[in-house]
Design brief:
mainly alpha; 4 helices; 67% helix; elongated; transmembrane
């Protein structure tokens, strides 16, 4: 019995744009899970989708850390800083939509103020 080593077929440019857009939008809905899945499953299928998934993953990790810090500060201040978690959520939605639109146009979006965890 011989087993052939399967290699992932490259995605078409249209599919790369589609998956990249979905990865960015998925960050709004399910947070860091969408970019993790996208990066792990699609990183070898195209440079464009890999770059977008990596950028989205780094951004969602940064947003997750910011949300945890915001909730801790809100708890410590007994609710005085109640707007911080909301501000983090708004930043996530706004920048994820901007990134999704850029990916749909065929551009790799670099999120501002993002820590590069995955290189």
């Amino acid at each position: 019995m011989s087993y052939e080593q399967s290699t992932a077929q490259p995605l078409t440019p249209e599919n790369e744009r589609l998956y990249s857009t979905l990865i960015h939008v998925g960050g709004i809905v399910i947070g860091v899970i969408s970019p993790i899945i996208g990066y792990l499953l699609l990183k070898d299928r195209g440079v464009f989708v890999r770059d977008n998934a990596r950028n989205a993953l780094n951004f969602q990790i940064t947003i997750t850390i910011a949300a945890v810090v915001a909730y801790i500060l809100t708890a410590i201040s007994f609710g005085i800083l109640f707007f911080l978690p909301l501000a983090v959520a708004v930043v996530n939605v706004v920048f994820s939509i901007i990134a999704a639109v850029a990916a749909n146009r065929g551009e790799v979006y670099r999120y501002p103020l993002t820590i590069a965890f995955v290189k």
